[in-house]
Structures are given as C-alpha cells and as structure tokens.
Amino acid sequence: MQRKLRLRNRDDFNRIYRQGQSFANSQFVVYWRKWPETEQFRLGISASSKLGGAVVRNRLRRMIKEIVRLNAGKINNGLDLILIVRKPALNLSYLEMEKSVLHVLRKAGLTKGSPPPVHKTYGKRPSGGGAPKNSGNRGPRAFLCL
C-alpha cells in the first residue's frame, strides 16, 4: 500500500473509532468513516498483542494489506477504514482470509455495488417514557419476596 493511503496517526484512529460506524464477522471488525478529502480510501490495521508476538501480528498485517491492495478496485473511495483482526483469523489460509475481509467490507456496504448496511435497533425504548421526574416524595420501592 502506498504511504499516503495508510492511517498511521493516533488522532485518525481515534476520530474513526468515535465518529465512525462498524460491522464485524467472527474474524474481523471494520470501522469506517466517510472522508471526502481523500481520492481513494485510507486503511489502518489493528492487531492486538493478544494475537501473538510481533512476527505473527506483522504477518497478519502484511497479508491484509496485500488482500486490500489486490482488491482496491472493489472498495469505495472517500473512506477511512480500520480493520481489526480477531483471534479466529490466525487459523485462516490466505484465500479464506481474503474471503472473510471482503465479506465484512461487503456486509458494511463499503464495496462497489454492495447495498448500504441495514442498521437494526434492538430493544430501544422511545424517549420520554417512564414515571415523571417529580412524582412526589416516594422513596425507593421495596418488594417482599417470600
């Protein structure tokens, strides 16, 4: 990957984590944020020390960079991406890893021709519900269980 297409700055990573969106599969998590100032996408890869030593982590990073480089034409432009490697990715062959990376990007709607992601809300309650704030001088409710 070209140097100008890499995310290396802590501020860039933090901005994407705070303001971006994410999707995941069992091997990878992708965080992304639209960034129209770039002609192409920019990529950062995060591999925790829990995955193994430096040799293992760097090998994973090199494989992912190569997968992204070869499939760059399939990825939308104007994005900042962070790929986080999970432990199950250690056991994947190159072809399985390529399939998994493309799957998580497609699932997030980041590949050309893929539908936008569907955001589901689970168990969210409408705001304003519940008891009124000043509902008298009632203390905590006590329940008697027999």
Describe this structure in words.
It catalyses: Endonucleolytic cleavage of RNA, removing 5'-extranucleotides from tRNA precursor. Belongs to the RnpA family. The longest helix has 17 residues, at 54-70. Strands 1-2-4-3 form a four-stranded mixed beta sheet, with helices on both faces. The termini are far apart. By secondary structure, the protein is an alpha+beta fold. The chain is built from three helices and four strands. It is globular. It has a domain at 3-104: Ribosomal Protein S5, domain 2, CATH 3.30.230.10. The chain has helices at residues 10-19, 54-70, 94-107, and strands at residues 21-24, 28-34, 42-46, 79-85.
Structural class, from helix and strand content?
Answer: alpha+beta
CATH T-level topology of the domain at 3-104: Ribosomal Protein S5, domain 2
CATH architecture grouping of the domain at 3-104: 2-Layer Sandwich
Poorly predicted residue ranges: 121-126
Strand content: 15-25%
Largest β-sheet summary: 4 strands, mixed
Assign the CATH class of the domain at 3-104. Answer: Alpha Beta
The radius of gyration computed from the alpha-carbon positions, rounded to a whole number of angstroms, is 21 Å
Kindly report the spatial arrangement of strands forming the biggest sheet. 1-2-4-3
Termini gap: 67 Å
Beta-strand segment tally:
4
User: Which geometry do the CA atoms define?
Assistant: globular
What's the helix count? 3
